[in-house]
Design a protein that fits this description.
By secondary structure, the protein is mainly alpha-helical. The protein is 67% helix and 4% strand. It has a 3-stranded antiparallel sheet. The protein is elongated, with a radius of gyration of 20 Å. Bound molecules: zinc ion (ZN).
Length: 249
């Protein structure tokens, strides 16, 4: 391995209980919350582009940061590995995943299926209050895009899609989409430009406009087009795009 790894940067969490007498938090104490805090913190760091693909995650360092044992850290790594955010390599340790183009395409394919269904349902039931909430979200997006504030921008652009699913009140759907969006963020992290972020925001505005008109067909078409554009901007498979152009001409 000749490629150097970027340094690990994680913002330490606010511990709700002060660590007493230097004792480590062991599995028996509060395994779920300690593990979950690490999982959440690393997930957020990836979603907000503070942790780059390929970064080595040291058990010891993370244990020190969160004041927990390496056993707890390993549990968090196992969960992150199940979410495909972290890769565990025997004898080498844990690394932030580097998704392949094929994996990225699969993620976008599933997103398109789920989000088209979300759009159809939501457009039929959306309330004026929910439209207002979406407009507030768009204002925050606008501000983050204008300020070229990359972590906030990435998070808000991804959250737009989760907010739509949340408005349907289906927690399973919201959870599934959150996981896919986090994986998308990791992909975007490696490839998304600020111009495509600007474009995404504009497409979100058009989607909300269609919701406001209760125009299901337009909303579905816009969501589909938006996901296609995001995927194309990430340049996941230029060969396939070229081939399509050749065959169409
Ligand atoms: Zn979007």
């Amino acid at each position: 391995m000749t490629r150097s790894r970027p340094p690990l940067k994680i913002v330490p969490p606010q511990l709700d209980v002060p660590a007493s007498s230097g004792a480590e938090l062991e599995v028996g104490d509060a395994p779920t919350s300690a593990t979950q805090r690490i999982v959440d913190s690393i997930t957020n760091a990836i979603a907000e582009r503070r942790l780059m693909p390929g970064t080595k995650l040291s058990e010891q360092k993370i244990g020190d940061i969160f004041e927990v044992s390496r056993t707890v850290v390993r549990q968090a790594f196992n969960q992150l590995s199940r979410d495909r955010l972290v890769v565990l390599e025997p004898a080498r340790g844990a690394f932030v995943a580097t998704p392949t183009a094929e994996e990225a395409r699969d993620v976008f394919e599933v997103r398109a299926i789920l989000e088209t269904a979300v759009t159809k349902q939501l457009c039929a039931t959306i309330t004026d209050e929910q439209i207002r909430q979406l407009r507030v979200h768009l204002e925050q997006e606008r501000a983050a895009v204008n300020n070229a504030e990359v972590p906030g921008r990435t998070r808000l652009l991804a959250d737009f899609h989760i907010v739509l699913a949340r408005m349907l009140g289906n927690q399973v759907l919201e959870q599934m989409l959150s996981e896919l969006l986090t994986r998308s963020s990791l992909i975007a992290l490696m490839r998304q430009s600020s111009q495509s972020a600007e474009e995404s925001h504009g497409e979100h505005v058009a989607i909300v406009d269609a919701f406001e008109r209760r125009d299901v067909r337009a909303a579905v078409r816009l969501v589909d087009k938006h996901l296609g554009n995001v995927q194309r901007n990430l340049d996941l498979d230029p060969q396939r795009i070229d081939l399509a152009n050749i065959l169409n001409h």
